[in-house]
Specification:
The chain has 149 residues and is α+β, with helices and mostly antiparallel strands. The chain is built from three helices and seven strands; from the N terminus they run βββββββααα. The protein has two domains: 78 residues, no CATH class; 47 residues. It is flat.
Length: 149
């Protein structure tokens, strides 16, 4: 990833990022491709920098899949360390909002998020909590009398 430009204006910071990996793997067939078809811009929200909101302008590349049997001939490169596919928020921001939502819930979490310069709605926090991965739990070997009900 290459940071190509930083713009600071009116309580906001804009970072322009460009991926630099020579190849990308297709999401369906996982065949590597280096043939660039075109480029597209994605606009992402990230955690704030102090009181300034941070927006990331990502210049993503579209690749041509070399597999003739793949159902997707053209695909956009995935950057799972930065952002999920089709998402508008970075993974860091989603993780922070999920933590707020788990601890406080919808309305109280939205109020705290606004005080932390990450304005979001109560319904968004609840949706993020419901979509979070639940850590695996051990299987029960014995059930006690109190756990039966």
């Amino acid at each position: 990833m290459c940071l190509t430009e930083v713009t600071i204006a009116n309580a906001s910071v804009r970072l322009q990022l460009t991926p630099t990996a020579p190849t990308a793997y297709g999401p369906c067939c996982t065949v590597p491709s280096s043939a660039i078809h075109s480029r597209c811009q994605r606009h992402l929200s990230d955690l704030p920098w102090g009181t300034c909101s941070v927006r990331i302008q990502l210049l993503a590349r579209k690749f041509v899949c070399p597999n003739p049997h793949c159902e997707r001939r053209i695909f956009t490169e995935r950057l799972p360390d930065l952002v999920a596919a089709y998402a508008w928020k970075t993974c860091r921001l989603v993780a922070a909002l999920q933590a707020i939502g788990v601890v406080l819930g919808g309305n109280a979490g939205a109020r705290l998020a606004a005080r932390l310069w990450v304005p979001t709605g109560a319904a968004t926090l609840v949706r993020l909590v419901r979509g979070a991965l639940i850590p695996p739990m051990r299987a029960l070997h014995e059930v006690g009398f109190n756990e039966w009900a």
